[in-house]
Amino acid sequence: KGAIAFKDVHFAYDPARPILKGISFEVPAGKTVAVVGPSGAGKSTLSRLLYRFYDVQEGAITIDGQDVRGVRQKSLRAVIGMVPQDTVLFNDTIAYNIRYGRTSATQAEIEAAADIAQIGGFIKSLPEGYGAMVGERGLKLSGGEKQRVAIARTVLKSPPILILDEATSALDTRTEQEIQTALDIVSQNRTTLVIAHRLSTVIHADEIIVLKDGGIAERGTHGELIDRD
Ligand code: ADP
Ligand code: ADP
Question: Where is the ABC transporter domain (predicted)?
Fold first, then answer.
């Protein structure tokens, strides 16, 4: 479940400057496809179109054959999980930040999600900045720890489709590798669209799409793309 198809997708924020000029590719159910390309190529725009922050102007995006323009945002959010580049936390416990929006989640489910993301040790902690008014001291979370909260959130939500939008690009190399390992686990058996800026971070993708000048410049596995260089 959750097969995605981009079919001849055209999009421009400004009609005078088209960003996507006829993009077609598929993410088969359960597979991982990565989109790479220079900054400004329109990689994040693809994920925003899938999520319906904007709608395509020509062509279509489908999930299991259904045009997303016929699906309400609320329903899309139920099937798509997103780990963004920077995670903004609410001023409440880590457990609350993991559970947010899923009021039916049990404590055991929250703890299991936190363990998979390897933040099980401090789910009762508060992020830094919390409690300034009441004199409580919070915990300063590193960028990697914040990404772990976002991953735990996604594990708890357990959506069939996952968007990883440069989810490790703000991290140092060692943390990036640790988070990548957690993301690899979460993306197993989910339809995953990875937005990446470097080929080296998407070695395991089933296919890599290279976006350039509004089109697909190259596509293939990591090994194939490296060989062509
Ligand atoms: P990438 O993710 O590949 O870096 P984006 O999809 O974020 O690229 O952006 C593609 C182009 O669209 C960029 O030139 C960017 O400046 C422009 N752009 C992005 N968002 C908007 C917006 N909301 N309004 C106008 N232009 C935008
Ligand atoms: P729901 O409770 O409806 O499932 P979530 O709170 O899980 O919704 O949000 C769905 C996903 O959408 C989250 O993973 C979040 O990262 C992402 N998201 C929400 N708002 C934005 C936004 N403005 N930009 C990018 N991603 C967003």
Answer: 4-229
Q: Kind of pairing, strands 32-36 and 207-212? A: parallel
- Look up the pTM and report it: 0.87
HEC letters along 43-108: HHHHHHHHCCCCCCCEEEEEECCEEHHHCCHHHHHHHEEEECCCCCCCCCCHHHHHHCCCCCCCHH
67: exposed, middle or buried (Cβ count in 10 Å: 0-12, 13-18, 19+) = middle
Nearest to 160 by CA among 191, 205, 184, 182: 191
Ligand 1 atom nearest residue 39's Cα? 4
Contact 157, 103 (CB under 8 A): no
Residues with CB under 6 A from ligand 1: 13, 19, 37, 39-45
32, burial (CB in 10 Å: exposed 0-12, middle 13-18, buried 19+)? buried
Q: What is the helix (H) or strand (E) element at residue 186, kind and residue range?
A: helix 173-187
Distance CA 226, CA 17 (A): 31
Q: What is the pLDDT along the chain (229 residues), one digit of tens a residue?
A: 899 999 999 999 999 999 999 999 999 999 999 999 999 999 999 999 999 999 999 999 999 999 999 999 899 999 999 998 888 888 888 899 999 888 899 999 999 999 989 888 888 777 766 554 445 566 777 888 888 999 999 999 999 999 999 888 888 888 888 888 888 888 988 999 999 988 888 888 999 999 999 999 999 999 999 887 6
> How many angstroms separate the alpha carbon of residue 42 from the centre of ligand 1?
6
